[in-house]
Amino acid sequence: MLTSFDDFPIHQTSQPVAQTGSSDLNHYDRYFFNGYTRDTRLYFAAAMGLYPNRHIADAAFSVVVDGGTADARQINVHASRRAPADRSEANQVGPIEVEVIEPLNALRVTVEAPEHGIRADLTFVRRSAPIQEPHFFHQVGSRTIMDSTRMTQFGGWEGWIEVDGELTDLEPGETLGSRDRSWGVRPVGERAPVGAPVADPQYYWLWAPINFEGFSTHFDVNELSDGKRWHETGVVALVPGANGVEPAEAMRDVDYRVEWRRGTRAAASFEIDLVPWVGEPSTITLEPLFDFHMLGIGYTHPEWSHGVWKGELEVGGDRWDLPVESMTAPHHVHIQTIVKATTSGGLGNHEGLGILEQLAIGRHKPTGLQGIFDGYVPG
């Protein structure tokens, strides 16, 4: 099937653009955004995914208001539709739209769902060049679970957001954040039989993009239950100077130290070591402030999970008070913790804000996690 994008020189296979390079049902193409005011009174995140071989597109937008206080709450809007064949029409799912204003520089996210308590018109403007993380490839037995590429980018937000009728203007410089784009193959949609078991359920993921005044730092790791690492990233990205140059330095090595909150799989404290190829290592100490549950943008959601057929077009919403009652419930284990950050060592002494994303399923011997969703118990 020919579509409008076939008129551009962007083909990666001998087929039209509408036909993916892989027939895997789990093929996907995805946006993620987050943002946080400098006083952390407001945190928001957005996601939009296209699953061409499932013929589904979905999106979500979520806001945490008054995080870390007795009035903290998370409010979410979800949308799902039949995926359009023409990629030029794939940027809107119901009330949520992502517009690429200037590729790799500025993107606009709009939401018009007052019946679910959220309206927004927000523009993400880059403060770093996009960072291509190492390729993700992971197999369980002979089955490929992940085969994807992700880019991460730091930026600031401008515009406005309305929650339950209360409007907040976001002036330039007031709200920071990050975004990512990823595509390829990873688990999405309804679970399917996988045959004979070859390994205990296990997935261990930490991801920490942090904004400082003149630079940003990026860290992630994927590890097996014994701590062996199959993916890692460490980068220091400078905010562009007067000459427009935006150098980003990839680290030679990264490491971390975590102490889990008792009875949970969420960090009570966290330190990152970034080791450059030349010069002194740096340590970034993260102080957790409050949690954002990725459930709000579809991750592990029992009803609005990514790539699940809901109908030609469906829109819904939900909300809950924070903190949640059970941090080890399967749908609440995946979180982004909003953190204050301080640096020492080679980077000097700086303070910043960012997030630490955590998804720990199954055993992880180095940090003392047992069972599949069991909360941490000190040894």
TrEMBL record:
<protein>
    <recommendedName>
        <fullName>AttH domain-containing protein</fullName>
    </recommendedName>
</protein>
